[in-house]
Write a structure and sequence with these properties.
The structure is a single chain. This protein has 194 residues and is mostly helical. The chain has 2 domains: 91 residues, RNA polymerase sigma factor, region 2, helix turn helix motif (Rna Polymerase Sigma Factor, Chain: A, Orthogonal Bundle); 68 residues, Winged helix-like DNA-binding domain superfamily/Winged helix DNA-binding domain (Arc Repressor Mutant, subunit A), CATH 1.10.10.10. Helices cover 64% and strands 0% of the residues. It is built from 9 helices and no strands.
Length: 194
C-alpha cells in the first residue's frame, strides 16, 4: 500500500467539476472596463447567492460596477481584478444590509413612538456644512495636533482616509487609528462639558 508523502497531504483540495477560472488582470482603464463587463455573470451569481433575490442581485451588480469604475484609480494595475471586484460586491452588499437593518429598526421605533423623529438625539454626528459652535471649536482645538488634524480632515472636510494620509504624510492605518482615538477624546471632552 503506497503512503502519501508529507507534501501531498497538504495539497489544496481539487474540485473536479469546478472549472478553473483564469485570473482577470487589467493594465489600463480600458482593460479594466472590459474585465468588469466579462465578470458581470459571475458577479450576478455571487450577488444572487448573497441577496437571495434576483432584483436585489441586479442592483448589487450595478452598484458594484459603478463603484469599481468610480474608484478605478484605486485598483492596483496588474493585480487580480476579480478579487478586487468581488470585494467591492461584498462591501456593497454589507452596506445595503446594514442600511436595511437601520431602516427596520427605525420603523420599529416609530411603530412604538410616532414622535420618535421629533425628539433630538443626545449626540448626533456634526453636519459638515454647519459651522462649529465656539465651545465645540475650543474642544477640538484642545486636542493634540496629530489627532486634531486627522479629525478635521476626515470628519469636517470629509476627506477619505487615503486623502488625509497623503496630505499628512502618514500611513492610512495611522490615520484610522488617530481618527478613532481623536473622536474618543473629543467625545470625552464634549461629555465633560454637558
Amino acid at each position: 500500500m503506497p503512503t502519501a508523502s508529507p507534501a501531498s497531504s497538504f495539497a489544496a483540495p481539487s474540485f473536479p467539476n469546478r472549472p478553473r477560472r483564469e485570473p482577470v488582470i487589467a493594465h489600463d482603464f480600458r482593460s479594466l472596463q472590459a474585465g468588469l463587463v466579462s465578470m458581470i455573470p459571475e458577479l450576478r451569481g455571487r450577488a444572487l447567492r448573497l441577496a437571495q433575490s434576483a432584483a436585489t442581485a441586479d442592483d448589487l451588480v450595478q452598484d458594484t460596477i459603478e463603484r469599481a469604475l468610480k474608484f478605478a484609480d484605486q485598483y492596483e494595475r496588474g493585480t487580480n481584478l476579480r478579487a478586487w471586484a468581488q470585494q467591492i460586491l461584498f462591501s456593497v452588499f454589507v452596506t445595503r444590509y446594514r442600511r436595511a437593518r437601520r431602516e427596520r429598526n427605525a420603523l420599529r421605533v416609530l411603530a412604538v413612538d410616532p414622535c420618535a423623529w421629533t425628539t433630538p438625539e443626545r449626540f448626533a454626528p456634526p453636519d459638515a456644512s454647519a459651522p462649529l459652535t465656539p465651545s465645540t471649536k475650543e474642544r477640538l482645538d484642545s486636542l493634540p495636533p496629530g489627532f486634531r488634524s486627522v479629525v478635521t480632515l476626515v470628519d469636517l472636510e470629509q476627506r477619505s482616509y487615503r486623502e488625509a494620509a497623503s496630505e499628512l504624510g502618514l500611513p492610512v492605518g495611522t490615520v484610522m487609528s488617530r481618527l478613532h482615538r481623536g473622536r474618543k477624546m473629543l467625545a470625552s471632552k464634549m461629555a465633560e462639558a454637558a
